[in-house]
Amino acid sequence: MRQDCVMSLQRRMDVLAKSAWFENLPAKALAELAAQGRERKLPQGQILFTANEPAEGMYVVLSGSVRAFRENIDGREQTIHVEGVGGILAEVPVFDGGAYPSTTMAEEDSELLFLAKEDVRRFLLQHPEAALTALAILAKKLRTVASLAEQLSLKDVTQRLATLLLEEARRKNPKLLDGVSFSMPLSHAQLASRLGSVREVVTRSLQKLVQQEVVAIHGHRVVILDLKALRAQTDPHSKASPASAARR
Amino acid sequence: MRQDCVMSLQRRMDVLAKSAWFENLPAKALAELAAQGRERKLPQGQILFTANEPAEGMYVVLSGSVRAFRENIDGREQTIHVEGVGGILAEVPVFDGGAYPSTTMAEEDSELLFLAKEDVRRFLLQHPEAALTALAILAKKLRTVASLAEQLSLKDVTQRLATLLLEEARRKNPKLLDGVSFSMPLSHAQLASRLGSVREVVTRSLQKLVQQEVVAIHGHRVVILDLKALRAQTDPHSKASPASAARR
DNA sequence: ACAGCTGGGTGATTTAAGTCACTGTGTTGG
DNA sequence: CCAACACAGTGACTTAAATCACCCAGCTGT
């Protein structure tokens, strides 16, 4: 038992050290944090916490993966993010003292490290470098969310779809050229939910891209045939330019 | 001159002390920060910094007000936020090291305090309480932006308009009841820019609300006549329920 | 083998938004 | 006083998107 506990602590530290939030911190600091956490197992499909429920702390994913989502008033459930090992859930309420912003559910059997918000705050006060890292991460998130908002507001579905494909492609394979392919295991309905649209529209938009030979699709594999054309779809200029219409 | 400088320092501290970012900090800490800043005058209409330009630091509004906006590729310019005295501009790039996320322009003659990003970082390392406050503010912003994104994606213009009116009303007068009024000195075009739409649509939406006697408008003064109806406009359910149409 | 499910593909119709073009109504300044 | 301008109001038209209502694979369990 004693042995178990030590091993577990070590494991927690390993995960924390690899997390973007705590990298570059001395082992001593990590040990301190790891010691304060409580572990928790979460079988697949189980809910960890629910949106609007008062928050007591945040969670670090030690194994498995957890999905955060929200139920919109019109009924559809929208995935916000998925966290794998080292990922953090519910950091926002720890900082601002509010309620959980989303509902989270284990995508597979997972283990989590719970850190009470007071512990986290105390830790950050004692380790200001960690606080600065946290600030950097939140700031990045803010940018991401803001640009996401922009996309949702200003572009038509085809443009948003093209943007998403480009992002996905870049994530898998940063050096982009014609012919790169990647796997995107999402149903049209899931795609639609990420794009803020509905299945039918996504189907038709995808079709359009395929017919224009901008991309090709085989099952869950997406091949980018014409990077330039895809980029053109991305920005609203393409509409204005008569040349591009001819090319299609 | 010497006198000027002292007075100026005092003024800076007064503003900083009232800013959400630095309230509750000891005067000594504020003085330290104020001393590191450089003041800058910005006549109305002048641009402070431009989106995507590398960021050297952030600005505190000492007087006047400054508007942050972005030019979208399709030409329209979208207001992101407006900061008055005590407000902060460009904190995000200070934390994440990136470029300015928006363009900012003085809405009226303004004075600003520039704080170099290294100075801010050093300050936060030495005053972890301030870092925690900053985290809280960023976290709140994240929530706001996220809910904003949700709104943009899921609601029609009338719904977004209703939401904006409710928010505005709550900011001026937190206890909401039928008959509260507030001033909203925005042209329809400016409203449209905040709602991600165009003037004509906003005009018609407003008209609709007025005709349904949900709100009344006299010049720049908005009176909320029927709070419940306004709230109903806010969520997409209202469409589904035929009863609500009768009630209006 | 087939009922039932899930994911995809389509046509027809409706609707909110955007676009254009023009009118009306102040305000401001020469 | 009138030209110029900015803002608001409107009608007519166009167009993405959403919605509805189907059909058509494949796959799964019985």
Report on this structure.
The structure is a homodimer of 248-residue chains. Chain A contains 11 helices and 11 strands. A 4-stranded antiparallel sheet of chain A has the order 1-8-3-6. In chain A, strands 2-7-4-5 form a 4-stranded antiparallel sheet, with no helix packed on it. In chain A, strands 9-11-10 form a 3-stranded antiparallel sheet. The first copy, chain A, is elongated, with a radius of gyration of 21 Å. Chain A folds into 2 domains: 2-151, Jelly Rolls; 155-247, Winged helix-like DNA-binding domain superfamily/Winged helix DNA-binding domain (Arc Repressor Mutant, subunit A, Orthogonal Bundle), CATH 1.10.10.10. In chain A, β4 and β5 form a beta hairpin. Chain A is an alpha+beta fold and 248 residues long. The first copy, chain A, has helices at 2-18, 27-36, 91-96, 117-126, 128-154, 157-172, 188-195, 199-211, 227-234, 237-240, 242-247; strands at 38-42, 47-49, 57-63, 66-71, 77-83, 88-89, 103-106, 110-116, 181-183, 215-218, 221-224. The A-B interface holds A 70, 72-74, 91-93, 95-98, 101, 121, 124-126, 128-129, 131-132, 134-136, 138-143, 145-146, 148-150, 152-154, 196, 235-237 and B 70, 72-74, 78, 80, 91-93, 95-98, 101, 121, 124-126, 128-129, 131-132, 134-143, 145-146, 148-150, 152-154, 196, 235-237.
Note the run of SSEs of chain A as H and E. Answer: HHEEEEEEHEEHHHEHHEEHHH
CATH class of the largest domain in chain A: Mainly Beta
Based on the coordinates given, report the CATH architecture of the largest domain in chain A.
Sandwich
**CATH fourth-tier homologous superfamily of the largest domain in chain A:** Jelly Rolls
Strand content of chain A: 15-25%
Give the CA-based shape of chain A: elongated
Q: What assembly state would you assign to the polypeptide chains in this entry? A: homodimer
What is the domain total for the residues of chain A? Answer: 2
Strand order of the largest sheet of chain A: 1-8-3-6
- Round the mean pLDDT of chain A to the nearest integer and report it: 86
Tell me the radius of gyration of chain A. 21 Å
Main sheet attributes: strand count, strand direction, barrel closure of chain A: 4 strands, antiparallel
Estimate the helix proportion of chain A, in percent. 40-55%
